[in-house]
Amino acid sequence: MLQSRLFSKTLRDAPKDEETANAKLLVRAGYVDKLMAGAYSYMPLGVRVLKKIEQVVREEMDAMGGQEVLMPMLHPKANWQATGGWDSIDVLFKIKSRTEKEYALGQSEEEVVTPLVMSRIQTYKDLPVAVYQIHWKFRDELRAKSGLLRGREFFMKDMYSFHESQEDFDRFYGVAKQAYLKVFERLGLVAKVTEASGGSFSEKISYEFMVLTDAGEDDILYCDACEFCVNAEIAKQKEKDACPKCGPPNGEARPKGGKGSLTKARASEVGNVFDLGQKYGKDFDLAFMDREGKRQYPVMGCYGIGISRLMGVLAEKFHDESGLLWPHAVAPFDVHLLRLGSTSAKAAADEQGTSSSPKASTVAKALADETEGHSTGSEVYQDLQAAGLTVLYDERAVSAGQKFADADLIGIPWRAILSPKTGDKIEVKRRGSDDVKLVSVSEFVKMLVS
Ligand code: ATP
Ligand code: MG
Asked: Residue 323: helix, strand or coil by DSSP?
């Protein structure tokens, strides 16, 4: 993509009404734009990151047997009354039509997915089924001050599974936990798994997937030696206690160099899985025929991942004082190609020319510049793309300093510079490293694809 065509320009200063690093940086770098507290527009760069995260999640949900669907965000009141959610869920947005009909905006979709799936399930042979969607959710959150971490409208993956028995659900629950860990690992994140009470739906245990970050809204206690982790809010333990799983017994002091004491840390919940039991089948009175020929309600599970929250968490984890540093798996482009020096000056001079359309003239210059004996920007741009790499090409007629600052802010993993000094080669460096190399385009491609 040509940077001159990006309508989402970078901003010099962070917006004053944003408190968190993710919001400040994502707005400044032109990934998102705040419409109001808790509602953001995703601009071209932001959409690319969101779609990368979405695709990683989709691949892992497909791999565990999930079937993708898209369900309406506009729900009839009757479904929410059937489950009691209409009166009990405080974050539910309720709207009235001009004919006085009432609707809910989807904050979760058990009310829609249960009738959708169960009306097609006749016997145990049709089970298990797992369906998921990647879609917008609406919640009337009281505080929406953490940028993408807490939206009133946000992007979520929600999966729902239906089982003939508790055992089959337990099996699937384990599979889902592993798939979740794989998702977070692929995104470059380490997620700690807490075991927590299932909250309003049931007293059953659920897992929360937590990523350590000061911008998060949860406190967790985790063991420094094993995988034990709990949400501090519900926990029997406190900081520095011996780990109940691997620490010294009976609260004895931790032996020097020994194992298992609890550390408290701030974290953000990026996903969770809940055991819903038979609640929703019962609420809608939708059952299947079990192996004994009896009517039985399905055991259900629900599995959420906050896709837009993940984008915010990634921005919190991967940035420095100059800007973002996206892990390659979610970066909007593989390479940021910067054209510097006389060619830029030439483009700048030409742009002052007589063309009636300044935009068309910039694009034309980018694609048709050149200095004899040197690689041209457009050649390198095309060669990199031909090698399968995605490239943001900064061919703008602005100063080198501005280009460097923008490249740091936008945070694409590789920066490649082409200037009169680099001749046929390009000067490449990783975002966040000072190690600069002068290489040919084909050497660079080999570095990236190997
Ligand atoms: P939280 O405790 O943070 O409010 P939750 O327990 O309400 O989360 P779920 O209802 O299970 O979360 O939603 C599934 C996932 O969606 C969460 O794990 C989180 O990653 C994400 N999520 C929940 N609420 C929001 C929100 N307001 N903005 C952005 N993402 C959210
Ligand atoms: Mg919530």
From this structure: strand
